[in-house]
Amino acid sequence: MLASVGDDETLRFWDLTKKQIIINKYLGAQATAITFSPDGAYLIVGLLNGVMLVLEARLGRLNFGSYIEEFTMPSLDVKMSPKEAKAAIIQIKFSYRGDYMAVSFNNETKGDAKAVELGAVEPSFVLIYVNKISLKNPDIKSGTGGDPYVKLMKIVLPLADF
Questions:
Q1: Fewer CB atoms inside 10 A, N or C side of the chain?
Q2: How much helix, strand and coil, in percent to the nearest 5, is found in the chain?
Q3: Is 73 or 91 the better-scoring residue by pLDDT?
Q4: Which domains occur in the chain, in start order?
Q5: Containing H/E element for 116?
Q6: CA of residue 84 relative to chain centroid, distance
Q7: Whether the predicted model's global pTM rises above the 0.70 cut
Q8: What angle do CA 143, 147, 148 make, to 5 degrees?
Q9: DSSP string computed for 118-148
Q10: pLDDT tens for residues 77-129?
Q11: Nearby residues of 139 by Cβ (< 8 Å), 6 or more positions away
């Protein structure tokens, strides 16, 4: 299985053995980043408009031990879709065990420090989320809400003078 996104605002799942698209889902905005959670339960898609989609992506194996593996398709149900900024999401990374997720936003201020000082634009930043079931943060209760990840902190990146 392979997941891909394109400029045509679609998400596609590919069956590499059959060399064909098996799922084609319209996202409504151009995707700029995509990754699976380390356990494969979620597919995280970052969009150009600043929305992060957390989609249910677990596959179920239909036939064990056979030469040709077959799987049930993921539901791709939206588990959470926070919009934290107008900026594009440019990267999504997980910690090794999946306890933490970092989402990088790019506001493309192009070194315009004056606009940032005046509050006209926000500098680029990274949001750190914690997986609720990992219990890495004692302040987060695993039974609160339906979102699998909770925002832990925001790291604002200083502008570089070039």
A1: C
A2: 5, 45, 50
A3: 91
A4: 2-156 (2.130.10.10)
A5: helix 113-117
A6: 13
A7: yes
A8: 85
A9: TTSSPPPEEEEEEEGGG--STT--TTSSS-S
A10: 888 888 888 888 999 999 988 899 999 998 765 545 555 555 556 678 899 99
A11: none
